[in-house]
């Protein structure tokens, strides 16, 4: 009589990397630096605040989703008043 093996696979987990990329590269192109991640299932966010502030001061434009995460973390309060202009 043969054995039956049960193989359990992990369900696809959504964990998003927050990266800084050059505007001229593709969306999945090479990133300049990884500045954090977001796990919506565990509601866990890690942000490298000094790196994020560096790129924002250099003129980086966050996407809508990343901008919402940065507002929750109150990153924009740490920027100078002339740097708070985002589209």
From TrEMBL:
One MF term in GO for this entry? structural constituent of ribosome
Q: Which gene encodes it?
A: rps16
The GO cellular component terms are: chloroplast; mitochondrion; small ribosomal subunit
Q: Does the keyword Plastid apply?
A: yes
Name used for this protein in its record: Small ribosomal subunit protein bS16c
Major location (coarse)? plastid
Similarity annotation:
Belongs to the bacterial ribosomal protein bS16 family.
Q: Which species is listed as the source?
A: Nymphoides coronata
Pfam families given for it? Ribosomal_S16 (PF00886)
Entry's InterPro entries?
Ribosomal_bS16 (IPR000307), Ribosomal_bS16_dom_sf (IPR023803)
Single GO biological process annotation from the record: mitochondrial translation
The question of whether Ribonucleoprotein is a record keyword is answered with yes
Q: Where in the cell is it found?
A: Plastid, Chloroplast
What keywords does the record list, in alphabetical order? Chloroplast, Plastid, Ribonucleoprotein, Ribosomal protein
